[in-house]
Amino acid sequence: MSKLAAQDKFLDLSDYGRPIGTFFATQLKNTRFTPIHVTLLFGVSGLIAIYCILENHYFLAAFFIILKSIIDAADGELARIKNTPSYTGRYLDSVFDIILNFLFLMSICYVSNTSFWLTVIAFFCIQLQGTLYNYYYVILRNKSVGGDTTSKIFEYKSPRALPGESQKSVDILFQIYTIVYGVFDKIIHTWDKDAYKVKTFPNWFMTLVSVYGLGFQLLIIAIMLPMNLIDYIVPFFIGYTLFVFVLIGIRKALFKV
User: What is the pLDDT of residues 39-74, one digit of tens each?
Assistant: First the structure.
């Protein structure tokens, strides 16, 4: 089951791990493994990548960063294959992502000549970039006929738990989610508050926006690490944020409400 209707599918540059992730999820279809188990597994892969960065094993770090992206695609695919969508998995996935993003950058800061405060700014910038991608993508998914609606455009209140999950777990993870992502959501929604009124986004525009998807961001880090460009990772992502205003400008100029 796809997140989008056929006419809304686009080349997602951040989703390169999807084919392998789908294959992996298919192998788990008739096992006891759940999407939550897969989410925990991508967390382990991310932690191994962090350890490799701290030990200056940059090729291995790059491998486990990309592996993390592949496994990250598999948990959602497994949920769709087994028809077991859950808000618990949706929020846990997002919380793990932001924690790993912070730790990736802090480990890079530790082994490079980058200042702590510049690293904090880069983390903030990376989250803004990812939030813009998610904002437009979730709008598209919610407006796509038959599209996935587990993610909402505006996360104002804890959703009602789906069959098979605990309402208490959903409520707790929702609160954590709103704490760690709330400020980024508010900033992006303020900068482009009318985007949700657009009927749809063309495929070429979404492909352009996908350079801000987490998978693509991690791919950039995975490329820069073994190239001994570690000192440039933090400055790159700070400068990379300028494209946010270009994308919002294109949206407002070409896709009016």
Answer: 999 999 999 999 999 999 999 999 999 999 999 989
Q: What is the structure's pLDDT at 80?
A: 85
Q: Which domains, and CATH codes, for the chain?
A: 6-254 (1.20.120.1760)
Residue 76 has a pLDDT of: 85
Give the other-Cβ count within 10 Å of 253's Cβ.
8
